[in-house]
Amino acid sequence: MAEDIAELQERYERFVAERYWEDYHAPKNLAASVAVEAGELLEVFQWHDVLPAAAYEDAADVEAAAADELADVFIYGLGLAAALDIDVREAIAAKLDRNERRFDPETAAAISREFDRWRESTDE
Ligand SMILES: [Mg+2]
User: Among 12, 23, 56, 74, which lies 20 to 30 A Cα-Cα from 63?
Assistant: First the structure.
């Protein structure tokens, strides 16, 4: 059974402390590390066409590489949250609340349909 967020954060903090890395895991460095790892995640798909997720169902190597880099993003994110005393669950829920208000479904769906029509019109 996977650990919950608090357990993962404790494990991360113990990992860092046991190696005397606290000074290196300053908020600025952790934020930079999130961006670096997000770049590594993007590198997994760098030269791929834009494909639906279903296209990767039989691509275990791609899935494993993406999971590995995504884990790096989350680990540094959890580290940054711990360093700044951010409650990850609260922060995510609050952001989802704001996004739900910001992108009302009808308007967002209408824009998406319009974009789909534009993309189809530019296909050769
Ligand atoms: Mg990585």
Answer: 12
